[in-house]
Amino acid sequence: LYDALADLAALAIERIQLVDDLDRARMAAEADRLRSALLTSVSHDLRTPLAGIKGAAGTLRDYYTAMPEADRNDLLQTIEQETDRLSRFIGNLLDMTRIETGLTEPNAALVDIDEIIGATLTRARPVLEGHKVRVSVLPDLPMLRLDPVLTEQVLFNLLDNAAKYAPHGSEIGLDAWRDGGAVVLQLRDEGPGIPPRDTERIFDMFYRVRKLDHVQAGTGLGLAICRGFTEAMGGTITAANRRDRSGAVFTIRFPVPVAETQKTEEET
Ligand code: ADP
């Protein structure tokens, strides 16, 4: 993990150093700021769950026999949840480093997006519990040249966020259709939406919308990974707000490979 962090910081700095010599002093200050933002965020995200685990373990050790079973179970659940959170965070961080250092070269193959959506929904079932999920994938979508693992990760992160930020019992919509030379995937939720000035920044590493910070623990890496993976596969991803009600909309566009475009033209 430490190496991954060092790599990330070095990369940020290297990128900054590529810029014009004249700007060097300003950029050096920016590099410092970046490095310390990275460290603050990472140490906070590692410390908080660790403190929770340590606290729960200590209480269990000291009061194990005197404690009602329900309380014991609560503490064990805390340990489990915080461990999950830690491993999610470390996983995200490693994914991010892999993209940044170019280690994750998309393993592209012609894939059926409908199948990827199905597989992601199965994997996300535990996260989506308590939400209504409405899926509409138009038939006969062309095959796409994508890395199925990365694509699943992108969709999973978006579903995970929708479930995290939108209230229990609300509806999450996932649509897929063709729009000219692209296949569009769109996720809608009924949560608070995203402040208009933040619709681009939420894709930055470690950026979180402040007023939501206390609502849900997160890493601020999920969407940076979505964008990194999507762009590595030649696609785009953007965020917006719903017009009909409150809620966020995430739109992904993947290009239809030329051979597939010709095939559909021949068929019609
Ligand atoms: P995390 O969820 O771990 O904080 P992300 O990179 O996935 O990190 O998201 C960055 C920020 O974007 C979140 O902290 C949240 O403020 C905002 N966000 C993401 N998805 C949604 C959503 N579906 N509805 C509202 N806000 C969202």
Structural notes for this entry:
It is a single chain. The chain has 268 residues and is an alpha+beta fold. The chain has seven helices and seven strands; from the N terminus they run αααβαββαββαββα. The strands form two sheets. Strands 2-4-5-7-6 form a five-stranded mixed β-sheet. Strands 1-3 form a two-stranded antiparallel sheet. Helix 2 runs antiparallel to helix 3 and helix 3 packs parallel to helix 6. Bound molecules: adenosine-5'-diphosphate (ADP). The site of adenosine-5'-diphosphate has 20 residues, from helix 5 and helix 6. Keywords: ATP-binding, Kinase, Membrane, Nucleotide-binding, Phosphoprotein, Transferase, Transmembrane, Transmembrane helix, Two-component regulatory system. One of its GO terms (molecular function) is ATP binding. This is histidine kinase.
Q: Topology, pairings included?
A:
Blueprint (H helix, E strand, L loop, with lengths): L1 H16 L6 H40 L5 H32 L8 E3 L1 H16 L3 E6 L6 E3 L1 H18 L5 E9 L2 E7 L33 H11 L3 E6 L6 E8 L2 H10 L1
Contiguous runs where pLDDT drops below 50 for at least 5 residues: none
For this structure, the quaternary state is single chain
Structural class, from helix and strand content? Answer: alpha+beta
Total E-strand runs: 7
| Contiguous helical run count | 7
In whole angstroms, the N-to-C terminal distance is 52 Å
Residue share in helices? 40-55%
β-strand amount: 15-25%
**Biggest sheet overview:** 5 strands, mixed
Overall pLDDT, averaged? 83
In sequence order, what are the helices and strands, one letter per element? HHHEHEEHEEHEEH
Radius of gyration: 21 Å
